[in-house]
Design a protein that fits this description.
alpha+beta, 61 residues, hydrolase, D-tyrosyl-tRNA(Tyr) deacylase, tRNA binding, D-tyrosyl-tRNA(Tyr) deacylase activity
Amino acid sequence: MKVVLQRVKSAEVQVDDVSVGQIAQGYLLLVGIQDADTVAEIDYLVRKIVNLRVLKIHREK
């Protein structure tokens, strides 16, 4: 499993040349999961991402 977190000014997801999602300034997560990854590994990465100090919720404390 791999996760890449990138700060972006804008981002868009296209499927068959059709926009299915977009954001303005924020964070883009590229997530790669394979069959061998366990729920425990996924939970670990979710907790790790949520607790990153770069996220706005942590800066306000």
